[in-house]
Amino acid sequence: MDRIVDITTDGLHLAVHRGFLTVTQGGQEVGRIALDDIGALVVHAHGTTWSNHVFVKLSERNVPAVVCASNHAPIAVVWPIEGHHAQGARLRAQAAAPRPLQKQLWQRIVAAKIRMQGHVLAANGQEAGAFDLLARRVRSGDPDNIEAQAARRYWKALFGPDFLRDQDAGGANALLNYGYTVLRAIVSRAICASGLHPTLGIFHSNRANAFALSDDLMEPYRPLVDQLVFNLVRSGERDLLPGTKRALTSLSTFDLRTEIGVSPLSVQIQRFVHSIALSFETGTPLPDLPPPPSPLELRMLGVSEPQEEETS
């Protein structure tokens, strides 16, 4: 099972020894994990030092190493340059994807995101009928910006009328930043494993964004992060304590029901990204998106993780 390894303690050193990622502090080993069990490495701490071998061995396994800023948003990613056996052909297909195909894919991605937002609201006792209607109104390329219209309703309905989504704020916003970082790492690894390039987005195209495709393809899954954060806030957790972070990194193992059975989120995302690669190759939009979880599954997302206080 892929695990998200999160480095939050200052002054740690990361190295590789006999197939394991080792973590040492002051010359003493404080932890290790098999490289083959790692889905992504996320670093938030100050003073972290690395062996170059860490990047080499993670890259050989298509595992991204994500470096985060003080607001817990990713600021850099070490990205493997070799991956899928068909990488060359898929990169060419991705780069040559016609604009109509990209717009059709974006239409389906946005509609799926809005429907998931509606299911999150409904699971928490909020009126959500308008979200299904909004999803149906999304046209190719979303020229009417239905995504933004849904977002304006969604945040207020989920977190209250005074809530503002602010990447630089604390509380629930900091938890959202952290959860999205985890999600972005999961999606980025799947993109690499599928032979695609994260910079060539479907919709996002900011010249400064090296992970435009990651940001595109994580959209349908963002409401799952929102639900997880809502559950944490509802239980009184508003700070990024160790237990809170464990709950957020558990997102990759959340089981989703699909037409072919139940599988963890990380596995379903791999199938979804693979379907996007096939869409580029065939010229036909074929996104493999799962149906939303049940209300009970959403309300239980992350709540089983025990919370604990920071220790000095």
How does this model look, in words?
The protein has about 300 residues and is of the alpha/beta class. The chain has two domains: about 5-65, CRISPR-associated endonuclease Cas1, N-terminal domain (Ribosomal Protein L15, Chain: K, domain 2); about 85-300, CRISPR-associated endonuclease Cas1, C-terminal domain (Four Helix Bundle (Hemerythrin (Met), subunit A)), CATH 1.20.120.920. About 45% of the residues lie in helices and about 15% in strands. The protein is built from eleven helices and ten strands. The chain has helices at about 50-60, 85-95, 100-125, 130-135, 145-160, 170-195, 210-215, 220-235, 240-250, 265-280, 295-300; strands spanning about 5, 15, 20-25, 30-35, 40-45, 50, 65-70, 75-80, 255-260, 260-265. The strands form three sheets. Strands 1-5-7-8 form a four-stranded mixed beta sheet. It has a four-stranded mixed beta sheet with strand order 4-3-2-6. The chain has a two-stranded antiparallel sheet with strand order 9-10. Strand 3 and strand 4 (about 30-35) form a beta hairpin. Helix 3 (about 100-125) runs parallel beside helix 5 (about 145-160), helix 4 runs antiparallel to helix 5 (about 145-160) and helix 6 (about 170-195) packs parallel to helix 9 (about 240-250). The two termini are about 30 Å apart. The model is unreliable at about 305-310 (pLDDT under 50).
